[in-house]
Specification:
The complex is a heterodimer of chains A (260) and B (203).
Chain A: H1 7-28, H2 40-43, H3 45-55, E1 59-64, H4 73-93, E2 97-101, H5 107-120, E3 132-134, H6 140-154, E4 158-164, H7 168-179, E5 182-187, H8 193-199, E6 202-205, H9 208-217, H10 220-248, H11 253-259
Helix pairs in contact in A: 1-10, 3-4, 4-5, 4-9, 6-7, 9-10
Chain B: H1 6-27, H2 31-65, H3 71-90, H4 92-126, H5 131-146, H6 151-154, H7 158-167, H8 169-193
Helix pairs in contact in B: 1-2, 2-3, 3-4, 5-7, 7-8
The chains are: A alpha/beta (260), B mainly alpha (203).
Chain lengths: 260, 203
């Protein structure tokens, strides 16, 4: 039924899934709701949007090149959760937003997210279809050009980049820094941690993006899933230590497990 | 069926293909169904592009109709779209010219900006008051000296040091990223099948 080389993988998958489920359920039932420390980037959202309202300038938001149908989906979804909160603040203060959509399948979801953000903010009349603009499916260069052009021409008061970001991080944050935007940026992608620290006023380093997304929703299941991810990380760390010891002493046990 | 709400249908549409793909991954017994599901995904993605193109035209035609400040850019974009689309079907040589000569050059020019911002990062980072920046600056210096053609003339230790940084901390960091992405994906999967994750449904 289960071919060789897949049994250990399946057991590990089920263990990780089980731990996550337990953490989510414990949090949902209020037995163990994890607390997440204050994150400067989240606390800065009212300030950043308030500045945009004072300057009468828009806010540029982006989830980067990642979509909802690839391995970067968790990052994109975490970014969307925070951006929903940002748009709600924009609705309260009457600030327009701009989002360049690079994944066609995300277009309806992002249009809905922005529209409902303004509705929740109490200013549905501000929303216009122009706020979410499609620029080409997976066309990273088009996204970079669109971001650079928009930030240079419109000079948004704030530039918020949260999700699975790639090269466009350089363009967006670099251009935003030149134009004097207040910048909130976060991605768990390793290559871009340096530029986040250097150019964003409020960076979310590494896995902080997931924690921020859970904190901003405030839902116990979301908070529980963050705790569950921590438990999973501990399991992975234990496995790394065990496999390192086994490899160092020359044991074939680990290889046998992987081939099981 | 009528009692099912929109949200539950969406979750079912997520669970069924996910289950097929997962069972196939671990047993290899649903390969035909998996191929079919992936084919459906491609078909749906194609229709999504159609939505995107409609949005693109709506946006730029509105700009042209209202004679907004950026109307010349919209004219260029719409003209480029129509010409490239037409060339693809009626004049393949022209299409190749547009893609290989015009678009490739423009894309390379745009990528040069990435290089520009990367190189100016060092100077921007120098003015930032953040303890992480120190680590960044040290890494930048190490990377710069490691890639210098004359590095061994300055100090013979740059080669081994740079190689160690690249092979050990960098590889460790990359592996940590892969583990983080994997765990994040599993968390997303369980949140979605339990109905707690709704961001992908929009508002």
């Amino acid at each position: 039924m289960i071919p060789a080389g897949k049994k250990f993988e399946l057991i590990l998958f089920l263990v990780l899934l089980g731990l996550l489920y337990v953490a989510i359920e414990l949090s949902r039932r209020g037995i163990k709701v994890p607390k997440i420390r204050e994150l400067a980037a989240l606390q800065a959202i009212p300030e950043v949007v308030g500045r945009a309202a004072e300057l009468n300038r828009p806010v540029h938001i982006s989830t980067g090149i990642g979509g909802l149908s690839d391995e970067w989906a968790p990052m994109t979804i975490a970014g969307m959760a925070i951006l929903r909160n940002v748009v709600e603040y924009c609705g309260k203060l009457g600030v327009p937003v701009k989002y360049f959509c690079i994944r066609a399948h995300m277009l309806p979801a992002m249009q809905d997210l922005v529209r409902s953000g303004y509705v929740k903010g109490g200013r549905p009349e501000i929303y216009s279809e122009d706020m979410v603009e499609f620029i080409g499916d997976g066309q990273q260069r088009a996204l970079m050009a669109a971001m650079m052009g928009y930030i240079t021409r419109e000079k948004p008061a704030a530039n918020i980049l949260l999700g699975a970001t790639f090269y466009e991080t350089y363009i967006s944050l670099g251009c935003g820094a030149v134009q004097g935007c207040l910048q909130i940026a976060g991605t768990p992608r390793l290559y871009y941690q340096g530029i986040l620290v250097a150019l964003a006023d409020y960076p979310l380093i590494g896995q902080e993006l997931y924690a921020a997304a859970a904190k901003v929703t405030g839902n116990p299941p979301d908070l529980g899933s963050i705790a569950g991810q921590d438990y999973n990380t501990v399991v992975c760390l234990i496995l790394i230590v065990i496999s390192t010891i086994l490899a160092t002493i020359g044991s074939a046990l680990w290889n046998m497990l992987l081939k099981w | 069926m009528l009692s099912l709400r929109r949200r539950e249908i969406c979750i079912l549409l997520y669970i069924i293909p996910a289950a097929i793909i997962l069972i196939n991954h671990f047993t290899g017994e649903l390969s035909a169904a998996t191929s079919e599901v992936l084919l459906w995904a491609s078909t749906l993605a194609t229709f999504a592009i159609l939505l995107g193109v409609i949005n693109l035209f709506q946006h730029h035609i509105t700009i042209l109709a209202r004679r907004r400040r950026e109307w010349p850019y919209s004219t260029i974009l719409l003209a480029s779209f129509i010409v490239t689309f037409a060339f693809n079907y009626i004049y393949p040589t022209g299409y190749d010219f547009v893609i290989n000569r015009l678009l490739a050059s423009l894309q390379m020019a745009l990528l040069a900006y990435v290089g520009f911002y990367s190189y100016t990062l060092f100077f921007r980072a120098s003015g930032t008051k953040n303890p992480y920046v120190l680590i960044l600056l040290i890494s930048i210096l190490l990377g710069l000296f490691y890639n210098l053609p004359m590095r061994d003339v300055i100090w013979t230790g740059w080669g081994p040091l740079g190689k160690w940084v690249n092979d050990v901390p960098n590889t460790g960091g990359m592996n940590a990223l892969v583990i983080g992405v994997g765990i994040g994906t599993i968390a997303l999967f369980i949140r979605t099948i339990l109905g707690y994750e709704e961001s992908y449904l929009g508002g």
